[in-house]
C-alpha cells in the first residue's frame, strides 16, 4: 500500500522552485522488459498505470479541504502457467490540511479504496479503508520536518506505517524524503530542466476472483512488494506542465497470491508478524523498468 501513499501525498519536485505548488493532475506509465520466473525459463512483462487527481479548496482561515481520486492498474502474469491478469484500484481522498500555527500544519485524510481484478460483482473483500495523518514543522525557510502515520485494512491484514522525513530546498538542490516510503533528490540544471535520484517502496494488495468452482467463486488476493531505485530527468516546457522520464531497477519484487483466509497477524512498516502464509504462485526475477510521468502543476502564491 505504500505506493498508493506516495501517489496520495508526494509532490513531485521537478523544478528549482521551493515546494509551493500542488500537482492537480498526475499520470504515469511504467513498463519493464521481459522478466524470467524463478522456477522456469518462461517470461512475462509488466505494465503499470497510475492517475492521481487532487482538488484542494483553500479556506479563508488558511486551512484547505482536500479531495481527489487515485486510479492504479497493474498488468502482468503471476505464474509461468497463466496469462496476464490485470488488477486495479480506485482510492477516494477526503480530508483537510490544517494550519495549526506559523510553523505547524498537518494533513488528515480518509482513504477508502476498492481493489480487485473485477472479474465478478463487488464483494466486501474488494473494499479497504485507510487513513493518514502527516504533520509538518517548518524549521526555517529552507528546511521542514515531516512525521505521521498511515493505517490500512489490507487484504493480507491490518497494516501500520509510521512516517518520518524532511523537505529541504536551497539554491539548485531539493530533497524530499519520507521514510520508509520514498526519497527524491533533485538538482536544477536550468530553470526548466532538473535531474535526480529516486527511491520508492511498494506494498499493496488486491482481491482476486476466479471462475466459479462448484457454483462458488474462488477467492484469493495478491500481495505486491518492491523497492524501486531510479534516476530521472524532468522538463517543464511551459509553466505548470511537467514531463518526467525515469529509468531504474526494481529490487525485492514479488506478486504473490494467497488464499483469502491466509493472512498475517499485523504489519508494521517493513515487519510482518505472524506471517506463515504459503504463496500459491512463484516469483519472477528483479529487473529494470522505465517510467514516463506527466503532471499539471498549480503554483501557490507565497
Can you characterise this structure?
The structure is a single chain. With 302 residues, this protein is an all-beta fold. Helices cover 3% and strands 67% of the residues.
Radius of gyration: 20 Å
Strand content: over 45%
User: What's the story with the biggest beta sheet?
Assistant: 14 strands, antiparallel, barrel
Mean pLDDT: 88
How would you name the oligomeric state of the polypeptide chains in this document? single chain
Helix content: under 10%
Total number of strands: 18
Number of helical regions? 1
The largest sheet has its strands arranged as 1-4-5-6-7-8-9-10-11-12-13-14-15-18
In angstroms, what separates the terminal alpha carbons?
33 Å
> Structural class of the secondary elements?
mainly beta
N-to-C series of helices and strands: HEEEEEEEEEEEEEEEEEE
* Uncertain stretches of 5 or more adjacent residues: 1-18
- Give the overall silhouette: globular
Offer a few descriptive terms.
single chain; 302 residues; mainly beta; 14-stranded antiparallel barrel; two-stranded antiparallel ribbon; 18 strands; 67% strand
